[in-house]
Amino acid sequence: MKIVRFEFEGKIAYGLLATDNQITVIDGDIFCGPYQESNKKVALDQVSLLAPCQPTKAVCIGLNYHDHAREMNLKLPEEPLIFIKPSSALNKPDGEIEFPSISKNLHYEGELAIVIKKTAHKIPVEQAGEYVLGYTCANDVTARDIQMHDGQWTRGKSFDTFLPLGPWIETQLNPHDVGIKLLLNGEVKQISNTTNLIFKVPEMVAFISQVMTLYPGDVILTGTPAGVGAMQVGDTVTVEIEGIGRLTNTVVRG
């Protein structure tokens, strides 16, 4: 099931996307429920897609692909390395990524994102799946020079527009065996499979919930595979995940 968040005729709504690209509008709360399908339908090409959820925060996992660790010649972490992107960084499918005027080195990082279904606080690994609504595509946009200069990651990861999400939430997906790729101006730059994840979805959800409460609509970015690199003003960047779809954004001068 694909859950979309969209704007149509000045109104924002959630809906279910069918294989014929028709959206059935949802009445109710997709996170806490209950919700039901209405009798209202609209075509996908008539709406403006928005980020599929509105997280209070995005919790990101650093160095979580075996191929990326090998690429960087780094030792595998013993536990998830986490950092946060603020909600103000949220960006939508087809949205513009702003290249900050104070940066000279902007990077893409294609990632699978977990969307949290209900409040998670100190939950066990065995129950983590109950707290996941589904999955979407993400780009962990990074001002790499600022990240390296600061010696920590907050500023370089947190500029407005640095959290593109979408195009929708897929609720029926095996997150541990799907292909992931990133294309820059149509050229494949990252290609891997989530079988290369170091920490799996239940481990990540449970681990983070021991530190901070996760709320409905929060997202966890599960890490990026090998092939991270630079973007320039005018570039088009696409994150494509098997079973979900494509998230495409363009880079503009900030």
TrEMBL record:
GO biological process terms, semicolon-separated: carboxylic acid metabolic process
Pfam families linked: FAA_hydrolase, Rv2993c-like_N
Keyword Metal-binding assigned: yes
Start and end residues of each Rv2993c-like N-terminal domain: 1-52
Annotated organism of origin: uncultured Sporomusa sp
PANTHER family per record: FUMARYLACETOACETATE HYDROLASE DOMAIN-CONTAINING PROTEIN 2A, FUMARYLACETOACETATE HYDROLASE DOMAIN-CONTAINING PROTEIN 2A-RELATED
Record-level Gene Ontology MF annotations: isomerase activity; metal ion binding
Coiled coil: none
Signal sequence interval, chain numbering: none
Protein name: Ureidoglycolate lyase
